[in-house]
Structures are given as C-alpha cells and as structure tokens.
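[agent] plan:
  1. take the single chain provided in the ticket
  2. run structure prediction with default settings
  3. attach structure tokens to the ticket
  4. add a short note for the reviewer (M.T.)
[agent] executing step 1
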Amino acid sequence: MGGRGRRGRPLSGALLGDALGHFGHPELVALAAALAARPGAPAAVGPGEPVPRRAAVALVLRVNGGTPELLFVRRAEYPGDPWSGHVAFPGGREEPGDPDPWATAARETWEETGLDLRRDGALLGALDELYPRTPSLPPIVVRPHVAVLSRPGELRLSDELAAAFWVPVRRFAEPGFATTSTVRARGHALTVPSFVHEGHTIWGMTHRILLQLLERWSG
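[agent] step 2 finished; step 3 output follows
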C-alpha cells in the first residue's frame, strides 16, 4: 500500500476510488464512505486512571468469489494469558518502533498471519477505541483498523495462533446467527452475546468491535 496509507491515514478521494475500483466491491466502497463520515473516536481515560498501554487490531477484509469476507484468528492456549484461546482479530501491543497505531496493526498482522497489509492492502479507516475496564486485564486501549486485501494472500500462522478462518460478512445479518453463548473466563461461566461460526465463538471485545463494523456496514 502506498501514499497516505503508509503513514497510517486512510486512502481518500481519487486514491481510494482507484484502489477499490481495481480490487474492490460496491459494499466496500460504501463502507469506506461510512468510515470517512464517522472516524473512530478516542477512548476516554479519566484523570485518576492509570496510563494505559496502546494496542491495535486489524479487521482484514477480502473479496472471495464476489463476496466480502472478514478474517478472524483463534489465539493459542497459554497459561496466564487473559486472551488465551479466544477468537480475535490479528493485532497486539504497540512497540517503540511503531510510528502510529496503524503501523502496530499492520506489523502484528504480518507477524501473526503472514499477510502484508502495507504491500497488499488498503486502510479504509478506523473504528472507536476500546478501553476494557476489568480487573483481569492490564490497562490497555485498543484501536481497531479496517483494511481490505488487494490480492489473495497465503496465511502463515505464528505459534501465537491456533487457527484462522474467514467469515462472509453477510452471514452476520442472517436470522439466528446472533446468539448467546456460555463461555468460561477467569474461572467463571458467563452468558454473553455472541456469534458462532463452525464451532468458533466470537464474543467479548472481538464481538464489540465487530458490532461497530456491522453498524457502519449497514449505514
């Protein structure tokens, strides 16, 4: 990806039109417009709260057989990791060499999945930041970014991931696909809103980020 996208800003105007016209889809054009009209808002951090670490994730879209699909990953099981085994979007914590949150999301996506969003994709925009306030998690603010692949990419998963899978975006609008699930977290059984795709339960922060995307997708 070139031009403004390399500096962490979405492509815009003629650049975005050329990019989406080359490898895009009408729904992605509408999504890009919705993201531009409503840029992601920063998380509010109160004056008495600890300074949170920063992290970023990538909502990676592709067009497969004319159908937009969204990439999810399932994290490997590690003792003491609060996101161990969860379904998530590629991403991770900001590192000192990252110039901006988009750089964090693109770097982490490359390291975890082998997909090079800077070379083979375009940044469409960002969603609202999330600041989960729960005792089991360290203070952290997560910035979600929405990107689209310009060409097919081979997934090469790092040992941080147990699986990766694509879900057609239209599935999330199917009757009955939105559901509730019982999950275990921090030693407790929780009943949570979710989507379940081929045995993978999408819940928690990933579910909240996904709902933001679907809201903009539907206009």
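[agent] step 4 note for reviewer: The longest strand covers residues 53-64.
[agent] ticket updated
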